[in-house]
Structure formats: C-alpha cells, structure tokens
Amino acid sequence: MLKIWILINDKAKAGFESEHGFSALIEFRDKKIIFDTGQSDVFLKNARKLGLDLRNIDAVVISHGHYDHGNGLESLLRETGPKRIFIGNGFFNHKYGGGKYIGLEHTIDYYEKLGGKFQTIEKDSEIFDGIQLLTAVPMISFEQPEEKFKVEDESKKLKRDFFEEELYLSLESPEGTIIITGCSHRGIINIMSRLPKDKKIKAVVGGFHLIKKTDEELYKIAESLKAFKLESLYPCHCTGDKAIKILKEIFNSQVNECLSGGFIEIR
Q1: Residue 204 phi/psi, 5° resolution?
Q2: Are 56 and 32 in contact (CB under 8 A)?
C-alpha cells in the first residue's frame, strides 16, 4: 500500500497553508521519502498539522533545481539533521526564468554543513526495494520545456534549459507502477513513454507543467494519456486549472486534484 501526504501545493485544504511549489511525504514498503520541499518552511508547518514527524524519513528526492522545489531543503535539514538526498546531475547549476534567478538559494557546501549527504543520480537507479529513480526522459513527443527557462553552462553562459537533471520516482507494486513527478518539464507523455510497454501504470501524482499549454495541446496530451490506461491521475502544482478541467472532462472520476494537507492512499 502506498500513502502520500501532500505537504505543499499551490492550493490548500481548509486549515492548511499553500505556496507556489510542491512537496510530498511518500510511505511505501516501509520506507519514507520526502519528494521535493517547496520554497520555504511551509511544508514543515503543514506536516506538523498532519501529525507527521519528518525526522524519521529514510531519504529526500529533489526533482529539479528550481527554488519552489528545493529551497525548503534548509528547513528540512535543520528539522531532521543529516539526511541522504538524491539529486540529478546539474542540480546546483544556476537557473533562470524570464531573466529572473529561480535556482537554489544556497550552494551544495551550505547544505552539506547542515547534514545533507548528496548522491547524484546519472542513470535510472533503484534506491530501495521496488523504489526507482528515473532520470531525464527522452523528449519524443511534441512536448518541450518553455524557452524562457535558461541555465548556466560551465563557462557561465546562459543556454536553454532542457532540465537534464530532472528526476521522477517510480514505485513498483503488484498492481502496477505509480509515478511521482515534480514538474514534468520534459513532458508528461515523455515520462509515461519511458516505461516498458507491458507496464501497467496505476497512478501518476505530481505537477504536469501544463499551465501554459493551449487548449489544442491540452486535449492532445489528455488523449495521449488515455493510451496508457491509467487508473488515476493526481494533478498538482504547475498543472493549471484549465488543464485539470480538461483532464477531468476526458478521465472523469479518475482525476483528483492535489491540495496542501491532502492524503492519497493507493492500494
């Protein structure tokens, strides 16, 4: 059984706080993983309201190097002490969006002094039994990261950011695979296409980054998702209200929007 507590999302249940960002506590096969940390300590406040003790987590995964997914890392380490943290290659590179800096607030040295034990994932890796990290998926569909996103290369020059450090969590259960994603900058269809054709995908939880897509693109993506025969979708964070409405139109009751303070149980 999989349990997911949504600690941060752009919208919240009554009594909980929200901010632009994403964070979730995932409990699966006796392991507890924090996936993303939002942009501040708000995820900790929501965790406390939910009665969750994050000091006993087994690992942290940060999906990509944007502030709204990783800046809460400082607060987490101050709360928990030393923790194992999985990141993609290039996670700490300086990142920009529309000319504004949107990368991590601190350097790796700063987080290491707080107890962060970083492990860079460069290829698909099983980090615990039945729990795998998938690396940046090939972009085989029409989906592409927005051109406004830039990243510094080794010579400090800005180039288009294709989010080559992006990580996704894949949980293997007898009933099918569950995918957790932070923002899906490289495309939600591309992420689904990465899995073997014979894999049953039970659920997808996370940000799908559809907020800037046209209606035509959204319907195309929704119809493409139908081919994977998903049991349920849990759109969060950067998916966007219009996209969620269209997904509900196509998938009906299979779509459940994420909210800060929300709880998901998948058997």
Answers
A1: -130, 130
A2: yes
Task: With CA atoms as reference, report the closest residue to 173 among 196, 201, 207.
Answer: 201
Cα–Cα distance, 59 to 14 (Å, whole number): 29
Q: What is the DSSP string of the chain?
A: -EEEEEEE-SSB-TTS---SS-EEEEEETTEEEEEEE-SSSHHHHHHHHTT--GGG-SEEE--SS-HHHHTTHHHHHHHH-SEEEEEETTTTS-EEETTEE-S-SS-HHHHHHTTEEEEEE-S-EEEETTEEEE-PPP--SS----TTEEEE-TTS-EEE---TT--EEEEEETTEEEEEES--TT-HHHHHHTS-TT--EEEEEEE---TT--HHHHHHHHHHHHTTT-SEEEEEGGG-HHHHHHHHHHHGGGB----BT-EEEE-
Residue 219 near residue 243, CB atoms below 8 Å: no
pLDDT of 175 reads 84
Token duo for residue 104? 């991590």
Average pLDDT, the chain: 95
Contact 96, 150 (CB under 8 A): yes
The arithmetic mean of pLDDT across residues 103-112, rounded, is: 97
Is 0.85 topped by the overall pTM?
yes
First to last CA, the chain: 5
Token pair, residue 16, equals: 């909980």
Pair 38, 45: CB distance under 8 Å: no
